[in-house]
């Protein structure tokens, strides 16, 4: 039989299979790469004790409150200490779906792995329950944002003799890699379903290793499991970075020509009443947003991440000034002195705590800290009791003749009684502080004066 030339066979196969390729590609949804939150939308943070800490969630909220002051975006923390995916399912209807979220971030897995080396049965339980969590989120019409478990910092344990003595050696050696495996599986699920995905594990591990080059005892997770404020800020940054959040706040660029005529170009707001006379430049600036300012306990990570420059850049450049030193004041308050050469290159104001916009953003952050440390955390406490009751009720169902367990369940039921009324009260208290935030986060028009002093 005469053999067909290879080129002919390749062309024939291409002709046969080409019509199928677009259809196959069309069946694969594109992953979500942005949190497109609009006025009235709600973002829910579903998770375990790391979410219950009310820190990375608070920092993400701070970002949106200051970056989008004209939008009333709502947030709900649905974290409970010790939670596994199965626990999240038990409270899903009231603690997640009831808030009608547009997006739900999911941070579960630290407890699901049970702090033991990789175990196939344990993983399959986690896999089954997480798939059900994702499906329930989708059933509400929301989009899941799957997030890897965070880092298990074994060195933090090794630095504590008492904790080291009480911790199995296999956990120290293997558990961080178990969490990495769980996170890798979550990424595949997100890609397959077209969900959002955030890598928490890598930045926590990578930054920690970098810092240990100079400080072998460095950790952002003192108890090996629960990140402190610095680690939680790394987590918040991971969400915003992986979800391609808007980075810059503003960029004001002013040119003064040889005749002394000033002209401005700006991004992130509007310049008005621009004047230059007697070596003094003045203008009014109405910004669209505020810098992302955080409570001082997260300052370590602000510096590590170069967070101001990366996520909150407030740049001012002035070209054509007569050579010399200039004093910048905003609303009558002196915020710094700069050489004309530096102003021509540009200065950045986002980390300058003397500026009124920094102080305004800090006020927003402190109000939100009050909201999270008060009613939000109290609300999470109610769900902690609910989780305890749900677990014990399941145990009693499996062992109905256990009188001791029945008595324990009755005691917890008494504590949970009236929970809905308390939940509503905590929600109301959180909303009252949220109203204060919305009243404080709108940037007013500010007067800038740049005056030559030398």
Automatic annotation (TrEMBL):
Molecular function per GO: peptidase activity; phosphatidylcholine lysophospholipase activity
Q: Which segments of the protein form a coiled coil according to its record? A: 402-436
Q: Record's InterPro entries?
A: Ester_Hydrolysis_Enzymes, SGNH_hydro, SGNH_hydro_sf
Alphabetically, which GO biological process terms does the record hold?
A: proteolysis
Keywords in alphabetical order, please: Coiled coil, Hydrolase, Protease, Signal
Q: Which residues form the SGNH hydrolase-type esterase domain?
A: 45-232
Q: Which residues form the signal peptide?
A: 1-25
Keyword NADP listed = no
This protein's name: Multifunctional acyl-CoA thioesterase I and protease I and lysophospholipase L1
């Amino acid at each position: 039989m005469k053999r067909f030339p290879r080129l002919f066979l390749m062309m024939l196969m291409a002709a046969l299979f080409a019509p199928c390729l677009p259809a196959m590609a069309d069946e694969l949804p594109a992953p979500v790469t942005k949190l497109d939150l609009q006025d009235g939308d709600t973002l829910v943070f579903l998770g375990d004790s790391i979410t219950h800490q009310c820190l990375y969630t608070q920092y993400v909220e701070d970002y949106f409150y200051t970056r989008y002051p004209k939008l009333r975006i709502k947030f709900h923390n649905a974290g409970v200490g010790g939670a596994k995916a199965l626990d999240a399912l038990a409270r899903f209807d009231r603690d997640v779906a009831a808030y009608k979220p547009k997006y739900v971030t999911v941070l579960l897995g630290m407890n699901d792995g049970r702090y033991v080396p990789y175990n196939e049965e344990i993983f399959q339980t986690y896999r089954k329950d997480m798939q059900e969590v994702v499906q329930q989120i989708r059933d509400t019409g929301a989009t899941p944002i799957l997030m890897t478990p965070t880092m298990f910092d074994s060195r933090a344990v090794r630095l504590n003799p008492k904790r080291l003595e009480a911790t199995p050696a296999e956990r120290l050696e293997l558990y961080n890699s178990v969490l990495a495996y769980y996170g890798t599986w979550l990424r595949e699920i997100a890609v397959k379903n077209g969900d959002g995905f955030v890598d928490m594990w890598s930045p926590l591990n990578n930054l920690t290793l970098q810092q240990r080059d100079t400080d072998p005892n460095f950790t952002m997770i003192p108890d090996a499991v629960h990140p402190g404020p610095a680690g939680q800020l790394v987590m918040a940054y991971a969400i915003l970075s992986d979800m391609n959040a808007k980075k810059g706040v503003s960029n004001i660029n002013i040119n003064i020509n040889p005749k002394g005529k000033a002209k401005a170009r700006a991004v992130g707001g509007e310049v008005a009443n621009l004047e230059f006379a007697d070596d003094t430049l003045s203008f009014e600036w109405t910004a669209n947003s505020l810098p992302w300012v955080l409570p001082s306990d997260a300052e370590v990570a602000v510096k590590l991440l170069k967070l101001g420059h990366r996520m909150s850049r407030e740049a001012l450049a002035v070209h054509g000034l007569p050579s010399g030193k200039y004093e910048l004041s905003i609303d009558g308050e002196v915020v710094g002195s700069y050489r004309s050469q530096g102003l021509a290159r540009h200065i950045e104001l986002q980390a300058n705590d003397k500026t009124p916009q920094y102080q305004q953003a800090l006020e927003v952050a402190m109000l939100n800290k009050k909201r999270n440390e008060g009613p939000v955390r109290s609300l999470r406490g109610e769900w902690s009791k609910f989780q305890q009751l749900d677990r014990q009720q399941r145990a009693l169902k499996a062992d109905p003749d256990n009188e001791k367990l029945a008595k324990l369940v009755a005691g917890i039921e008494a504590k949970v009684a009236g929970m809905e009324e308390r939940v509503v009260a905590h929600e109301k208290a959180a909303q009252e502080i949220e109203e204060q935030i919305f009243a404080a986060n709108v940037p007013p028009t500010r007067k800038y004066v740049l005056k030559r002093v030398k």
